[in-house]
Write a structure and sequence with these properties.
By secondary structure, this protein is α+β, with helices and mostly antiparallel strands. The protein folds into two domains: 49 residues, Single Sheet (N-terminal domain of TfIIb), CATH 2.20.25; 70 residues. The strands form two sheets. Strands 1-2-3-4 form a four-stranded antiparallel beta sheet. A two-stranded antiparallel sheet has the order 5-6. A hairpin with a 4-residue loop joins strand 3 and strand 4. Helix 3 crosses helix 6 and helix 4 runs antiparallel to helix 6.
Length: 150
């Protein structure tokens, strides 16, 4: 099985813009939507469509295709990019919230190393746990840096 934190080499040729904020979306696997949409929203997905993730923090849309959108209220979990609360998940697989990362930085621990070890042990499941459908390490590093500067 391919690592969930593996960077795909194939780029989607049909990237589309979020219909609300007009930001370019990042292609997301259908399995991500199947895992994270609430049942009433899951019943409406078009399996033949390609979906993208909108990371714009001020946009309500999380997933979109050329015919459909899903906003953050349709997901089972808070979306890191759209929720700045301290208890919002940053690493969905291993339970790292902003608060847990803040505490780890304060205690001179290294959450990114812990997560990398778990990834290397083939324990992550970002494609089904993380709303962006891909590895969280970039998000974790960004949060660590923000707390390191504070």
């Amino acid at each position: 099985m391919e690592s969930c934190c593996h960077t795909p080499t194939k780029e989607s040729s049909n990237l589309i813009l979020c219909p609300v904020c007009r930001q370019k979306g990042k292609s997301v696997p259908l399995i991500t939507l199947k895992a994270l949409l609430q049942p009433t929203s899951l019943e409406t997905i078009d399996p033949a469509s390609s979906y993208a993730f909108c990371s714009n923090s001020s946009c309500e849309v999380v997933y979109f295709s050329d015919i459909q959108t899903f906003n953050k209220t349709t997901l089972k979990v808070p979306v890191f990019q759209k929720d700045d609360a301290l208890d919002a998940p940053v690493c969905y697989c291993f339970g790292w919230t902003r608060e847990r990362i803040r505490q780890a930085v304060q205690d001179r621990q290294h959450p990114n190393e812990h997560i990398r070890e778990q990834v290397q042990a083939n324990r992550c499941g970002c494609e089904v746990n993380n709303p962006q459908g891909s590895c969280c390490l970039g998000n974790v590093t960004t949060v660590i840096r923000s707390f390191s500067r504070a």
